[in-house]
Amino acid sequence: MSKNDVYKIIRLDEIDVLILCGGFGRRMQGIIKKLPKPMAEIGNRSFLDILIDYVSSFGFRRFILCLGYMGNIIKRHYQKRDDSLEILFSQENIPLGTAGAIKHAETVINSDPFVVMNGDSLCHFGLDKFVDFYIIKKALFALVLARAKPGKDYGVVSLGNNKQIIQFNEKMKAKSNDLINAGIYLFEKSILSMIPANKNLSLEHDLFPQIINNRFYGYVVEEELLDIGTPERYEKAKRILTNI
């Protein structure tokens, strides 16, 4: 299948992008204080602004922010934003976890497939190529895999020869060539039927085991995964992203 054939099938401006913004960010609360983690400041912008601007640079136009802790701050910020993007909100009244938050947003999701990503991490790779990969593989579900930092604890992912995911390992000391979940996904919409409503559920523990042998693929990138989950990682992200 050629690239032109792929784009006849699906256009990036027709794919919804869900961003998970509902976490408590406990390790960052002493640093960013009265802000939810995705609104942590990088230069004169929030991390979430940087993430949305990067994703929209590929042509994505419709964003759904899955909100939880301090969600009203994020909602107010984006209700004031005036540009060509459509930004919608899915507010949790109780914590629902990563899978539960996606299920909660089901009535707002228009596209099939749709993208899901974390609101506290960013990887500068070609999202258009990830969509190509998903379509060429005829995937039910695809996720982006980045390289681990040696010696740190990660959940390591194993791939088969055709890029199909064959195993998720518990957190372990990773080696430099190990692959880890980058928190960026493409979902076929039918997967939502596998997630019970109104329950606190995890993608890794509650959904992935159901689909691991069913058109579940990993897309490997060599670019570094940046996240702001700890004060140390936040400082590194600020150094890298401030002038971008």
Describe the protein in words.
This protein is 28% helix and 29% strand. With 244 residues, it is α/β, with parallel strands linked by helices. Strands 1, 4, 5, 6, 8, 9, 10, 11 and 12 form a 9-stranded mixed sheet that branches. A two-stranded antiparallel ribbon has the order 2-3. Strands 7-13 form a two-stranded antiparallel sheet. Residues 1-8 have low confidence and may be disordered.
Order of helices and strands: HEHEEHEHEHEEHEEEEHEEH
Radius of gyration, CA atoms, in whole angstroms? 17 Å
What structural class is derived from the secondary structure elements? alpha/beta
**Main β sheet profile:** 9 strands, mixed
How far apart lie the N and C ends?
A: 34 Å
Portion in helices: 25-40%
> Strand percentage, roughly?
25-35%
**Oligomeric state, counting identical vs distinct chains:** single chain
List descriptors.
13 strands, 28% helix, 244 residues, two-stranded antiparallel ribbon, disordered N terminus, alpha/beta
Please sum up the structure shown.
The chain has 244 residues and is α/β, with parallel strands linked by helices. Helices cover 28% and strands 29% of the residues.
